[in-house]
């Protein structure tokens, strides 16, 4: 290498290292931008590796001005290759994570083993169509044990409230961890894979109740003073104030602000990029959009509902509880300047000549750091961060729904969440009671992931299940139309029917068949189960049928046509496809159970009546023609044409009701006229329909003092 070339290399190296290695770091940073969760130590190691490779390249005199444009271009390539080498080395066996395991040999001796865990991409998909990646199941850069440590200090109802909000298996995992049971033993006891275990830990960490275990923020007296409050009578029933973020989080944690209004969507809707951008903005003291609260008077008590700002406060709450950390993706200005008292050798705060405390400027890189690891100054800045809060007073349910829709009428809500706000509050509560609380969904008896719950997919499953079970011929392709139809036509008994089915299915559905219950096909399977319930056979046979379909779907035929063409159709919301799936599965179910559909229709009537009226089935067979003729005469006199009670699907329960009155020698003509007029929807499950009619008749007799 001649002197001129050496000068070019030296000049390029000086250029790279000038201004605190600005250009060298910039080249490295661009290469590393796609990797989240890197600490400053990691960055320093990459910079060091780049420096070593530059020295090697200079020593080996590899620069050839005839091939490279400039010496700086040559060294830039050296730096990029250095970053790639460092990444490669970190993924080699000797740099991979080591898991130490213990097991006993045949003689009872304990053998210790070391296993190396190979590095894989967090974007690696799990399964073929789950929509999940490895990254969805990974924990953050800290241990769930830190959160459990805070929980151990809270010997009150908060722990049970938190645990009660977790799915069944997730709760079992956390309770075992609280008893210091090893991860290996937890997996063995519950039969969990590594991915399944990590998913449960992630669900526990991202639970919105984790904020219950944070310490109260340091509130100063001056922070409680609100000097910019306008009199209510001049604000058109709303007001804007400023509140510290920590104060709002405390109020939300303590239940003073209700973040779970029945029409509100769930927390944690943002992407990783959105979350990181938001948190660094708050930490830098930059303003964020206002928070909206609707105040409602309920039985003389004021209740404050969080209407807009759930994502902002929920992520802030989770961050303060050490539930998440800031990562590089989307983060801006993540090196935060702050002031810290100067201390002398005796750890006393140093003062200037005027007696004022001396400070020193410092920089804190927030990437990968838990909130508990922040300097006190930044913790206080976070808790004192001022947010504009608009409060609407004396709101009705309709006004709250209006505000939710309007404040989320941009990118915020998806179709499911937006249409949910149009439901009557009482109906919305019944939907949520099933979608949020029922074990079938809460404990994931179907192929449901957390994103389905967060995005409102399970609410849609409940609505569409009501449609598929009770109104298949009125099926709506558009989500909006389904919500509107159910809002107008659903009855309490329809919710009871669905809940009854879910209760029974939760006892038989297991890992073998849970993947058949997707968000698309769950309503179809629930509708088929209603037909199954009429057969009066063991529920485990339904589980066996579902498994049979899953194992043989591609080979099953109906009328010489492959059923898979309908079941796997991409037109999942078309009415013809939905009804085709239901009817096809019902036909295949009868074949699987060796039941003749036509014979079953006739025979099941006698069986149904015998079981529900505790009668001898032979007696019913002998008198069936008599019963049918009497029922026809009765309905001709009492029920107007067009009443849905006369529909063929209600025949069994109506006949049972007549036989019940006949056997008990009680007149039902006047009651039946009144019942048919006031009821326009009925249970699909004929047993439930009969029991409802029977209960209503008994109440009628009690009111009219009739012996029954």
Describe this structure in words.
With 708 residues, the protein is of the alpha+beta class. The strands form four sheets. A five-stranded mixed beta sheet has the order 3-9-5-6-4. Helices cover 52% and strands 9% of the residues. The longest helix has 30 residues, at 3-32. It folds into four domains: 3-94, no CATH class; 221-407, no CATH class; 415-594, no CATH class; 600-703, no CATH class. It is elongated and about 115 Å long.
Topology:
Layout: H1 3-32, H2 40-59, H3 71-91, E1 97-104, E2 110-117, H4 134-137, H5 144-152, H6 157-164, H7 168-178, H8 183-190, H9 194-205, H10 221-224, E3 238-244, H11 245-253, E4 257-258, H12 272-283, E5 291-298, E6 301-308, H13 310-320, E7 335-341, E8 359-365, H14 376-384, E9 386-392, H15 397-407, H16 415-420, H17 425-435, H18 439-442, H19 450-454, H20 457-470, H21 479-489, H22 492-505, H23 522-533, H24 540-552, E10 557-558, E11 561-562, H25 564-567, H26 575-592, H27 597-613, H28 617-638, H29 651-663, H30 669-678, H31 686-703
């Amino acid at each position: 290498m001649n002197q001129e070339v050496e000068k070019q290399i030296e000049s390029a190296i000086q250029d790279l290292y000038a201004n605190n290695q600005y250009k060298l770091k910039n080249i490295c940073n661009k290469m590393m931008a796609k990797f989240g969760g890197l600490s400053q130590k990691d960055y320093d190691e990459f910079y060091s590796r780049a420096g070593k490779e530059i020295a090697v390249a200079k020593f080996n005199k590899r620069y050839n001005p005839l091939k490279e444009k400039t010496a700086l271009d040559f060294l830039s390539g050296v730096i990029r290759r250095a970053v790639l080498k460092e990444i490669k080395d970190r993924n080699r066996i000797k740099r991979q994570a080591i898991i130490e395991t213990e097991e006993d040999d045949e003689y009872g001796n304990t053998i210790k083993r070391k296993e190396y865990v190979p590095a894989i991409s967090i974007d690696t998909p799990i399964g073929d169509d789950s929509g999940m990646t490895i990254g969805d199941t990974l924990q953050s850069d800290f241990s769930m044990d830190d959160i459990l440590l805070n929980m151990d200090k809270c010997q009150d109802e908060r722990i049970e409230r938190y645990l009660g909000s977790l799915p069944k298996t997730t709760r079992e995992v956390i309770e075992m961890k609280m008893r210091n049971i090893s991860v290996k033993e937890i997996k063995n006891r519950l039969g969990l894979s590594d991915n399944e275990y990590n998913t449960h830990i992630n669900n526990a960490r991202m639970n919105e109740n984790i904020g219950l275990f944070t310490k109260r923020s340091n509130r100063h007296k001056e922070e409680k003073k609100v000097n910019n409050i306008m009199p209510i009578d001049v604000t058109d029933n709303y007001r804007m104030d400023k509140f510290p973020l920590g104060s709002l989080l405390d109020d939300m944690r303590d239940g003073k602000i209700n973040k779970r209004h029945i029409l509100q969507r769930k927390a944690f809707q943002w992407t990783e990029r959105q979350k990181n951008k938001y948190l660094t903005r708050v930490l830098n003291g930059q303003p964020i959009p206002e928070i909206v609260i609707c105040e409602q008077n309920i039985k003389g008590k004021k209740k404050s509902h969080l209407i807009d700002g759930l994502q902002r406060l929920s992520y802030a709450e989770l961050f303060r509880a050490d539930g998440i950390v800031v990562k590089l993706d989307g983060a801006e200005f993540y090196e935060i300047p702050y002031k810290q008292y100067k201390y002398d050798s005796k750890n006393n705060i140093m003062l200037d000549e005027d007696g004022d405390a001396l400070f020193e400027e410092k920089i804190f890189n927030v990437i990968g750091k838990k909130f508990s690891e922040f300097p006190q100054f930044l913790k206080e800045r976070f808790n004192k961060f001022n947010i504009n809060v608009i409060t609407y007073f004396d709101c009705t349910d309709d006004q709250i729904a209006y505000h939710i829709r309007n404040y989320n009428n941009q990118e915020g809500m998806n179709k499911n969440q937006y249409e949910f706000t149009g439901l009557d509050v009482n109906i919305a509560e019944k939907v949520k009671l099933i979608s949020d609380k029922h074990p079938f969904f809460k404990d994931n008896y179907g192929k449901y992931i957390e994103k389905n719950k967060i995005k409102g997919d399970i609410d849609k499953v409940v609505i569409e299940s009501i449609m598929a079970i009770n109104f298949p011929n009125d099926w709506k392709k558009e989500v909006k139309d389904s919500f509107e139809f159910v809002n107008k036509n659903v009855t309490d008994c329809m919710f009871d029917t669905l809940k009854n089915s879910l209760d029974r299915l939760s006892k038989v559905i297991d890992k073998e068949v849970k993947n058949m219950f997707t968000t698309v096909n769950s309503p179809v399977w629930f509708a088929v189960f209603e037909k199954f319930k009429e057969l009066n056979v063991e529920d485990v046979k339904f589980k066996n049928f579902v498994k049979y379909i899953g194992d043989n779907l591609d080979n099953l035929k109906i009328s010489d046509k492959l059923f898979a063409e309908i079941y796997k159709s991409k037109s999942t919301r078309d009415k013809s496809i939905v009804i085709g799936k239901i009817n096809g599965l019902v036909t295949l179910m009868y074949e699987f159970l060796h039941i003749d559909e036509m014979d079953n229709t006739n025979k099941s009537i006698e069986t149904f009546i015998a079981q529900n009226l505790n009668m001898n089935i032979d007696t019913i067979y002998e008198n069936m023609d008599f019963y049918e003729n009497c029922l026809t005469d009765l309905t001709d006199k009492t029920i107007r044409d067009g009443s849905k009670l006369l529909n063929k699907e209600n025949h069994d329960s109506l006949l049972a009701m007549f036989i019940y009155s006949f056997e008990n020698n009680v007149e039902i003509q006047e009651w039946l006229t009144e019942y048919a007029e006031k009821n326009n929807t009925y249970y699909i499950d004929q047993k439930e329909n009969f029991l409802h009619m029977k209960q209503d008749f008994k109440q009628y007799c009690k009111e009219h003092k009739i012996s029954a």
